[in-house]
């Protein structure tokens, strides 16, 4: 029996992250739709995960930009969140997160929400640190 040799390939640095969340009663408001505060939390989580996977270090949210709620996400629907790195600076990244509501039984999909977030890579002291630009993409000035 041969054992596999540990990989020396550096970790990937994806610019996009996709995950899903079901809207359950504890996340809904009295209208039977996703409560706005919970939606903001999900958008922020998606921005955090996307930025951390790209920077491969600790990140914090420095700012949230404009957030659009296009349609209500109903109780029982699935929300597919896609975070994308749209700008990389010396220590900061802009992350756009979009949410697509999907009715599981019928498969109908509707753009539901979108937001932009500024994330900053930080060191162990919580100070901004440079993001390694060696990912094959140009680094734009901050």
UniProtKB/TrEMBL annotation:
GO terms for molecular function: long-chain fatty acyl-CoA hydrolase activity. It comes from the Bacteria. InterPro entries: Cytosol_ACT, HOTDOG_ACOT, HotDog_dom_sf, Thioestr_dom. CDD domains: BFIT_BACH. PROSITE patterns: HOTDOG_ACOT. Residues 13-125 form the HotDog ACOT-type domain. GO terms for cellular component: cytosol. Keywords: Hydrolase. GO terms for biological process: acyl-CoA metabolic process; fatty acid catabolic process. PANTHER family: ACYL COENZYME A THIOESTER HYDROLASE, CYTOSOLIC ACYL COENZYME A THIOESTER HYDROLASE. Belongs to the acyl coenzyme A hydrolase family. This is Acyl-CoA thioesterase. It comes from Zoogloea dura.
């Amino acid at each position: 029996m041969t054992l596999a040799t540990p990989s020396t390939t550096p970790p990937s640095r994806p610019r996009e992250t996709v995950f899903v969340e079901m809207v359950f009663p504890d996340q809904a408001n009295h209208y039977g739709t996703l409560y706005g505060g919970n939606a903001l939390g999900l958008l922020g989580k998606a921005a955090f995960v996307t930025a951390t996977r790209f920077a491969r270090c600790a990140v914090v949210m420095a700012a949230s930009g404009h957030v659009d709620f296009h349609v209500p996400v109903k109780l029982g629907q699935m929300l597919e969140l896609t975070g994308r790195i749209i700008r990389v600076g010396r220590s900061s990244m802009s992350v756009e997160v979009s949410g697509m509501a999907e009715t599981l039984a019928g498969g109908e999909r509707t753009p539901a929400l979108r937001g932009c977030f500024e994330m900053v890579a930080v060191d162990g002291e919580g100070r901004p640190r440079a993001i390694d630009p060696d990912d094959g993409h140009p680094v734009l000035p901050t």
